Amino acid sequence: MKNSFSEVKLFQVKPDKLVEFETLVTAIADEQKQQDGCIDIKYVKRFYTLDGIGNPPRELTKIVKCVKYFSYWEFDTIESYGKANGWFFKTYEKQIQKLLIMPFDINCGYSLY
Questions:
Q1: Is 82 helix (H, G, I), strand (E, B) or coil?
Q2: Contacts of 11 (CB under 8 A, 6+ apart)
Q3: Which residues form the domain of 43?
């Protein structure tokens, strides 16, 4: 959707907390979808890396320090995003932070296309 407002979070999860993190975000995602103005929410686990342009990605075989997950949360307006983001932090920040090696990184803005 053009001019939607979106957020991308990067989570660097402790290797011994993967199951707990995936269980938690599965439940959180259902609640995130219910937030006013939410268009979509997706979570991605980094399973692959690129070894060269034009080649299929290579599956990662070992964990070095952490496992990276990304979320993509899209909204109809910046105001809807602000309210939902406040809900997310109030409800889940402490629970999620315990599973990470460092605080999650947030990037947000309007879609270009």
A1: helix
A2: 21, 68, 69, 70, 71, 96, 99, 100, 104
A3: 5-110
Q: What is the CATH number of the domain that holds 99?
A: 3.30.70.100
3 state SS for 9-41: EEEEECHHHHHHHHHHHHHHHHHHHCCCCEEEE
pLDDT digits (tens, 9 = 90+) for 80-93: 999 999 999 999 99
- Ramachandran region of residue 3, left (φ > 0), alpha (ψ -120 to 50) or beta? left
Whole-Å CA distances, 43 to 8, 52, 55: 10, 25, 24
User: In the chain, how many domains are there?
Assistant: 1
pTM: 0.91
Cβ neighbours, 10 Å, residue 28: 18
Q: What is the DSSP letter of 60?
A: P
- For residue 69, which phi and psi values (nearest 5 degrees)? -125, 150
